[in-house]
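User: Need the bound-state model for D-xylulose:
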Amino acid sequence: MAAAAAPSSPCYLGWDLSTQQLKVVAVDEQMTVIHEDTINFDKDLPEFGTQGGVYVHSDRLTVMSPVLMWVKALDMILEKMKSSGFNFYRVRALSGAGQQHGSVYWKEGTNSVLQNLPPDLPLHQSLKSCFSVSNSPIWMDSSTYAQCCCLEKAVGGAQKLAEISGSRAYERFTGNQIAKIYSQNPEVYSKTERISLVSSFAASLFLGSYASIDYSDGSGMNLLQIREKVWSPICLDACAPELERRLGHPVPSSKILGSISPYYSKRYGFNPDCKVVAFTGDNPASLAGMRLAEGDIAISLGTSDTLFLWIKEPKPALEGHILCSPVDSQAYMALLCFKNGSLMREKIRDELASGSWKEFSKVLSSTTVGNDGNVGFYFDVMEIIPEAVGIHRFNAHNQRIPDFPKEVEIRALIEGQFMAKRIHAEKLGYKILPSTRILATGGASYNKEILQVLSDVFSAPVYTIDTANSACLGSAYRAVHGLVAETNVPLTDVVKLAPGPKLVATPTAGVAQVYQPLLKRYMELEQQVLNWTKQHHMEKLKMRP
Ligand code: XUL
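Assistant: Bound-state model below.
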């Protein structure tokens, strides 16, 4: 057992429990990253047999992750940090992020297990019988069509639900997931004492008791009134009985939830006074990590690709989501999520570029802007925006064709992914101004050739931040900010010393003329792809009309 080390200069931890891995960064008082660690679920925890951190059911709609794998990953990463000599006593505060919408079901009586964790046991042993649902539904799940219809009907329609909760009913949103568990398994639901989001679940592990859900991640549930920041009684009732007591009270995202559980002081040598600041969703945490300013647009190129904008006046629509801002209690963020992100890019890379990013990039940069009019749609799994599936290729005459040559395919994939993002951001009222900056983060933000296409499609400069782990870094910043947030100091003031974004790509001369007509065609072809999906999959996939 680690004895408490002598205090030295403070540091802050930011965690990210994402789909494929658990990550942590430590920053010092100068906001310099002094430590990073990762546990990859497939590679480091093969006993769970996940692929990309998840189990995809044969219906292709149900997607889950084993909750004990997440717990075991925390044990592993802390052990790894300990053996590398990391001084836990320095940590003044920690916060974290979780993949959004996923939910964790704690069995009756578990809070007392959490409050009395024996320090000589790893967490996964103490918590092994604490979950009423062992495989947690996650954000990739789209199996709750029936529950979405019920919820929209109960509140008076999709637009009404969007006005209340920031989004129309989405299959992956937690309220609908809870409703499905309740309707399929009322026994399991009744034995559930508490329901956490992935973020508040991770916070609970550190706090040693059930942690509150924060407003920002709470906005991804179809249950929170985003303006009043309280649970919506009508939405709760439509999903499951006695849900409010199972969710606990939502809290501001910058709230200090308490001090770290004694378990961590005894086992790893944390200072008992280390504060746990509310955890939030990975996208809100990325917004904090990128220090997004008004007018900027952020693009996170991760397992899913997400795009977010800072907004003052929420105008919830039928497409996209409005969430409470994680850093400013008066502001909101708009979020667009595209499911076929890096998994799709990796698939094409493996098929056409022998699994090598280098080769992929070489091919990409050897092709011309606009791809000679060839356009492709690559939706391996049912996409969120637009609600379409399948691989669809069109030549310059808008004719469907079965295959593209390798280099055309690679460019069609990347150009298509970015054209979709621009079109749907503009639909939400976003305008690209001469001052617009695109802030890129996530795995693919390391790839210069991909970022060049992004810059060209948007006709705007692209910046990256030093680490691609913006959710982790944002969580560390939020930990620092949490200690002073009550005095109304903005996050940007507290993390002034953090390195600024780096310019990595500027638009190629003349690209706007190429993309203007191409964007218009992309939009029209997208409609064809949507119609095709409706004809071919309506019955099987039970899409909402
Ligand atoms: C956002 C969403 C995804 C997950 C990925 O709505 O579903 O971006 O947060 O972790």
